[in-house]
Amino acid sequence: MFKIIFLGTGTSQGIPIIGSKHPVCLSKNPKDKRLRVSIAISWNDFIYVIDCGPDFRQQILRNPIPRLDGVIFTHEHADHTAGLDDIRPFFFRQGNIDFYASQKVFSALDIRFSYIMNDANKYPGAPSINKNLVNKNKKFKLQDLFITPIEVMHHKLEVMGYRFGNFAYLTDVKTITDEELKKLENLDVLVLSALRVEPHPSHLNLEEALILAKKINPKKTYFTHISHLLGFHDEVEASLPSNIHLAYDTLEITSS
Asked: Count of H helices and E strands in the chain?
């Protein structure tokens, strides 16, 4: 059984957006306050996070976890990687932290975080990591579990989703091939991005996310990577089919 904590469910600017007067940004409902998108997933006392964005420190202070067995990256955009330096407290207690990502993501991190990623140029006090390459065509092992990578397209950028048992996490999706869809059969829980109501060139909008969720047909779906333009949480939640929900920050769910 997997326990999933939604550390953040917002898009790249989060909600509220700095300086915005949009009604959703001014909402008093805590479910309308969204940090950048990330989850923690745990089973058998193992704990991993998927993505490590600029709100990572705040997320872990708000959702304390005792250790970090690894960080799994979907892609290299800043809202998914910019909190990397804040793994230091875990590194100081545990030693090297395992990272899992495609070569493209590691190449980007090598440039942005050279003081961490480059052992030959190690800055004193910087954390150290172990690189583990992810290939969309090959399952990889985390502890006692094999994980299935699922490639989706974020406009023209490859993004990796992941399947753990009967749980799958797909963010920053615009399109997915039929071949990759086959990896998503018989899910209990699907987490899928749904940015806003209006169409977007690199993200599923609400209508597209509903269509894709119906095609994949999991028992339950939770939408994430949400912008203020999707609307108020409670109003959108009330409009969705009974087996589809809006995720919100700090939500905890389980899946087999």
From this structure: 8, 14
Q: In 10 A of CB 148, how many CB atoms?
A: 17
Residue 85: which residues within 8 A CB-CB, separation 6 or more? 113, 116, 127
What is the C-alpha separation between 152 and 172, in angstroms, rounded? 8
Q: Is residue 140 a part of any domain in this protein?
A: yes
Residue owning tokens 């490590």? 52
256 within a domain of the structure (yes/no): no
Round to whole Å and give the CA distance between 169 and 225. 11
Residue 52 covered by a domain: yes
Q: In angstroms, rounded to a whole number, what is the distance separating the alpha carbons of residues 70 and 58?
A: 18
Tokens of 26: 């001014």
User: What DSSP string describes 54-77?
Assistant: TTHHHHHHHS--S---EEE-S---
CATH number of the domain enclosing 239: 3.60.15.10
166-213 pLDDT, tens digit per residue, is 999 999 999 999 999 999 999 999 999 999 999 999 999 999 999 999
In the chain, the number of structural domains is 1
With contact defined as beta carbons under 8 Å apart, do 104 and 76 qualify?
yes
Per the omega criterion (within 30 degrees of 0), is the bond before 16 cis?
Answer: yes
For residue 164, the enclosing domain spans: 2-251
pTM for the full model? 0.97
Contact 28, 71 (CB under 8 A): no
pLDDT band at 118 (very low <50, low <70, confident <90, very high): confident
- Whether residue 63 lies inside any domain: the answer is yes
Distance of CA 96 to the CA centre of its chain: 22
Residue 73's nearest CA partner among 16, 143, 19, 129 is 129
Q: Are 73 and 52 in contact (CB under 8 A)?
A: yes
